[in-house]
Amino acid sequence: SGGGDGGGGGAEGDLVTVGFVAVGPEGAWREANEANIQETFTEDAGYDLRYAPATNLDQQSQIDAFTSFVDEGVDVILLSATEGSGWEASLERAQEAEIPVILIDRGIEPNDDSLYATRIAPDNMVVSESVAEWAVSAFPEGANYFVLEGPAGVSVVNERNEGFQSVIGEDDAFVSLGAQTANWSTEEARSVMETVLQANDNDVQFVFAQNDEMGLGAVQAVEAAGLTPGVDVQIATIDGTRPALEALAAGQLSFVAEYNPLFGETALEAVETVLDGGEVDSYIIVPSETFDSPEAAETALPDRQF
Amino acid sequence: MTATTTRERLGALASTPLVWGLVAIVVLLAINSLRDPGYLGVELAESGRLTGNPIDILRTAAPLLMIALGMTLVVATGGIDLSVGSAMVIGGAVSMEMLQAGDGSVGSAMAALGMALLITAVLGAINGLLVAFVGLQPFITTLVTMLAGRGLAKVITEGQNTSASNEAFRWIANGTVLGAPVVFLIALAILVIVVVLVRTTALGMLIESIGIDPKASRMAGIDRRSLLVAVYVISGVLGGVAGVFATGSVMTVDVSNTGLLLELDAILAVVVGGTALTGGRFSLAGAAIGALLIATLDKTVVFLGVSSAATPAFKAVVIVALCLLQSATIRERLSRVRLRAPRREVTA
Amino acid sequence: MTTTIEHAQAAPTPPWHRRAIERARRRGIDVRTLPTGAAGIILAVMLVYGEIAYGQVLQASTLSNLLINNAHFVILAVGLSFVILAGGIDLSVGAVIAVSSVAGVMLVGAGWPTPLAIAAMIGIGTAFGTASGVLVQHFGVQPFIATLAMMFLARGLASMLSTTPQRLPDDSSFRLLGEPWKLIDGPRVNDLMASAGLVVAVVVVVVAAIVLQRTRFGRTVYAIGGSESSAALMGLRVPRTKLAIYVISGTLAGVAAVVYTARLGTAQNITGMGWELTAIAAVVIGGTLLTGGYGYVVGSVIGALVLGLMTVLITRDGGVPPEMTTIITGGILFVFVMLQRAVVRRRR
Amino acid sequence: MAMEPRPPIVEMRGITIEFPGVKALDGVDLRLLPGEVHTLMGENGAGKSTLIKALTGVYRFQEGELIVAGEPVRLDGTASAQAAGISTVYQEVNLCENLSIGENVMLGQEPRTRLGIDWRRLHALASEALEALGLGDLDTRQSLSTLSLAVQQLVAISRAIVANAKVLILDEPTSSLDANEVARLFAVMRDLRDRGVAILFVSHFLEQVYEISDRLTVLRNGRHEGEFAIDEIDRSALISLMIGKDADTLDAIAQKREAAPREVDAEPLLRARGIARRGAIVPTDLELHAGEVLGFAGLLGSGRTELARLLYGADRLDAGTIELHGRPVALTSPAAALRHRIVFSSENRRDEGIIRDLTVRENVVLAVQAKRGWLRRIATSQQRTLVDDCIARFDVRPAQPERRIGTLSGGNQQKVLLGRWLATDPEIVILDEPTRGIDVGAKADIQAAVLELASRGVAVIFISSELDEVVRLSDRIVVLKDHAVIATLENGPDVTSETIVARIADADAQEEAA
Ligand SMILES: Nc1ncnc2c1ncn2[C@@H]1O[C@H](COP(=O)(O)OP(=O)(O)OP(=O)(O)O)[C@@H](O)[C@H]1O
Ligand SMILES: Nc1ncnc2c1ncn2[C@@H]1O[C@H](COP(=O)(O)OP(=O)(O)OP(=O)(O)O)[C@@H](O)[C@H]1O
Ligand SMILES: [Mg+2]
Ligand SMILES: [Mg+2]
Description:
The structure holds four protein chains of four kinds. Chain B has helices at residues 6-14, 17-35, 53-76, 84-101, 106-134, 138-156, 167-174, 182-199, 203-212, 214-219, 224-248, 262-272, 284-303, 311-326, 328-334, and strands spanning 42-44, 50-52, 176-177, 180-181. Chain B is mostly helical. Chain B has a two-stranded antiparallel ribbon. A two-stranded antiparallel ribbon of chain B has the order 3-4. In chain B, strand 1 (42-44) and strand 2 (50-52) form a beta hairpin. Chain C is mostly helical. Chain C has one domain (15-340): ABC transporter involved in vitamin B12 uptake, BtuC, CATH 1.10.3470. Chain C contains 14 helices and five strands. Chain D is an alpha/beta fold. Helices cover 37% and strands 24% of the residues of chain D. A six-stranded mixed beta sheet of chain D has the order 6-9-10-3-11-12, with helices on both faces. Chain D has a six-stranded mixed beta sheet with strand order 18-19-20-15-21-22, sandwiched between helices. In chain D, strands 2-1-4-5 form a four-stranded antiparallel beta sheet, with helices on one face. The interface between C and D is large, with 47 and 56 residues. The site of one adenosine-5'-triphosphate (ATP) has 21 residues of chain D, from helix 5 and helix 10. One adenosine-5'-triphosphate is lined by residues 135, 137-138, 146-151, 176, 280, 298, 300-306, 347, 465 of chain D.
């Protein structure tokens, strides 16, 4: 397989050229994840990392970047796809060019693991199941719940819905009040939640926000409606960014499931193994924690990196 | 010569786009009230502030109303400002950063607001200078500043979603005075200020003039360039104000999402309000109603529980229905004159 | 008594204006082609700069991929050129691609033969284009709003069809359309390639250029862009043409959906978000005036390639900090239009 | 001249069109016979253009019927009128500036081969059509925007010639043409008439009407006042029928010639030295004194408009200086010129004059407001005074200040524009074809206004294609040819339009000789 002298970038001497097809600015989680990778693959560590974020989260621009890395002949490609599907042709071409590809975070669909070296990611399904499991235990009598989603059709949204529903959907005590997109945004989540509370005469016990930002928006809407978050309405979020843990510590959020972004080291090891011709597992799951109490949040906060 | 008949008066009324915006708002509110008769109710919550759907609608409409006003002026000159969403996020980013660094006092709130306005004014000025003096097309100019502006916001917050706390600020964004949300009152105040600025001076007429016919306006001795710069600066500043209050409501700036695609909503509001995108005659009140309509529509979608997937289609249906009602074809039914001249839509 | 003051510089032969006209004729430069020409030159400069700065740009694989990956985009830009040349705008194309491709793939999945599915996909594009056209032409809705509504509608319908990615069966003959053909098998992946999609794009460009330059319909498009009222008074078939341009743009969006779907093998409701703006930017970069009347299809092709190349160059550079990406994209776009402006100014 | 009775090719009966607030046509009849030139007469705003637009499918009429070649027809749009063989040149030039001259001539009637439009033949045909109007040397591949308005009007006319129509409608085609061009146009019209084309003609020049018409229809206030063979009605009867006033009063003003040359300051108010612009004006000197009327005379495209534009800062100078009151000034823009109390009324009222969607009032106050800056809005009462003055002075009809100016008739728009410029209290007034499309009565008003301005010490530059008018009003006359001033004449009894034409011909001869 491809050695370190793949003819890439030219002037960088014996640095290993890594093409990073990234997502770019999306939210705090992505920020932490990509910064972590950029900080890991440094020149000191022997790498020349080419960072190529998508424009407007558009898959087309990622494919363009990917193709360009293949044409240029980088040594290895890290692919952090915005969308899981539609990558076959590109990956096949990378294979033909003997450039190993490592998937970061998002997997591909259909999951043909012969097309890439490995996938390193936390598991969305597992993380969202953990939210649902917590809910089941927190509301033994069941609850009226509402889901704040990301944009309809994005695969994270689909996966987080699927994981969540696989548990909650089984439990008849939970009554869905519906789901609405708030486009990952605090403001929109606040606005949506306000209306949801109005429409249901404040009879909402549980909100599942698919990211921290929306969860924080929900907190504000609940407060604005004169209710107490954490008491009248319990809110659970996914990601585990610092503001969310602070809110958890303050009792505003009730549950935060981490979706661990810090796996640059793991990626580095995988890249080294692959370039040396070694074998790696086709899926390296990054362990993620959950925080279900203010105390847990307090403990984690001091060395929270994102 | 002719006495105005009821029919003519009806026709004139029907040809005021503003009226149809109002009708649409009423219809949407009625639909919501059908679902829940208490929809329009406003209550005094324990916390001592008023809550209720109408209040929420007004608060949601406020930032949109502000940018729609600036957009109206820009559109009237025959231009377009795609960068207002970015002006919002810049305004939000600057104010949140300043507040975070500040001491939570009213003074630091003022400083944050001032700084946000200053920077967004500069952004607007850049647009204006490029359009007026370099002669770039407004669409492409503001597309560039839209892209670069959001980037700038990210640079300002170093990519973080900065939060801050400042009571004065929070009150402005969330508080109510006599039942009405403060933000909305501010938006109304801005509406009044802009209307006064534009209509008690000659600004409005001159803007319309350059929008209708730049060449003839130049020959009439109008200094088109400084007017253009002024209008884009106004739009930028209003974008900044809107951004400050939009982020103020949650006290967090979301650099990727604040103001995203809001320029489209603003343009929609402007057009619903009866200002043609080809420039010329404009109606600020119309734009305000347009903004209210869009806020109502957004709220209705959630209230009725329309699924995320179907939301855009639902909006489309409402917009199309409204456009058809405003269309000349319907209007012709109501008024007697049937002109088959190549016509331009003109607003009163 | 008549006093006559003879002027010293009187009556030069031949007169200035005739000389100036002759000079222009000798040079054979039509000022109307300058912006497009400038775009072409700058594209060439970008290619050379890329090669010098990063290497591996002027090579078979990079260039063929530039064409293949942007084929659908070229088609889209060509469709928009018709609309923009006539002074309209079509914001719905991105969303139309989404609904058309999701529907198409689902039809293939349901067992429809490929040609039929393709026809359906194009038909969906045509239907949306027709709807926009009718709104604009018959009901006098402003193009921006009519097509914005269609954008919402198309996006909504796409989401209602499916919010999960739809995949073409592995054995579907649809995929063949997207398979790259290796014309010259170079070392490693440095091949000269083409694809059916690229061929479609080339055909579309050629046909569009012929239609615009050599048919009455095409000239009517330009005439409407120059002055709609004049075109109408000259007895040109304005209503029909205005309808037709939206139909063309919608249809070509359908075609683009076919090309894109075949290449990707999957379809999704969120495909094509924001593509309308990029396509408009491509058209404008290619030298077409957004107000209509001036521009060429070739320009739109160049514009699409410029934007594609920009992505490649940013990727090649690889050192762009995340918060700077949009600034840099905006910056490059800005430098581009400024350069173009400078070239055009100088030559005029 | 006895005409054998032929069935009319076009017959309009009882046409009524009402716009909001105005009944533009009230039961009007019109009969057009094949092989005749039929003139539509009437004051500004009488409804001539409206009648024409009803005939060509631009407006739908509320009452009445239209019969073409014996068949009642319903036109929905100009395209169907053209299909019915009716070809029209509207009052305002309607061409596309973004296209080439040739293409404008041939739009909608391009010659085609199997490969689409045959561009070579298109330009050849266009050239041929233009040739008939004396524009054979025009490069049809040039952009239309390079042409002066008058030439654009000829281009529009050539469109109608190419169309090979049965009915040709010309709404004030001669309003900005010089005598030569008018003669050429008339030759073409006669030729078409002899080939059986029915021509509907509108003009405010009585001489032209009597020269070319076979019959005429008179409109007044949107009502049909009668249809006459040309030899049935004499001028004064015609005028009183149109205006409802005694024709003698008009003649009195119209024939009044400025008796003695006015006393003017020795020091010129404006002095231009060597001003030039590439492709427009060769280096030229010019002096303008307070209280004088300086006429610009010349043929079409001789550079009158371009020289005037330089003095107004509408175009930038390439060379030369301009002094006002002995001090050099930089007239870099119309706004700057306006600040120096120079105003310019363009010949192209549609594109460079009116702001069509603004009201009459707004159009009148616009320049005054522009001069004052946006901050100091003119008080509503003062606006009222300004607009009422204008309406009264030039008899603008309908006298509704809040009417959209775009809905006024062409002549009335022109009057409003003059009102705009005079409202700014100017020191130098440049009038480019100010009487374009103005009826006999109003023309006298405008001429009187020019003289009155001069007598108040205002310097007036007066440009008109009607040489008689220039000679009648001017104290001195600058003669231009081929973008250069060839002579400056002191006006006197021995200066007539003939002597000026001779001047220009002389220069031609010299040129030939050289
Ligand atoms: N589109 C319109 N809307 C409203 N009123 C109109 C419109 N067009 C014309 N009018 C009115 O109809 C009347 C007749 O106008 P028209 O243009 O036919 O006059 P005209 O005889 O051609 O005059 P002129 O000699 O000045 O060109 C005028 O009072 C004018 O104001
Ligand atoms: N007969 C012609 N042949 C070629 N070009 C012409 C002709 N007449 C006018 N032009 C063009 O029109 C342009 C405008 O000329 P300008 O406006 O100064 O003319 P003018 O003296 O005002 O006459 P008018 O306005 O009556 O046409 C000139 O630059 C010239 O190129
Ligand atoms: Mg007329
Ligand atoms: Mg002239």
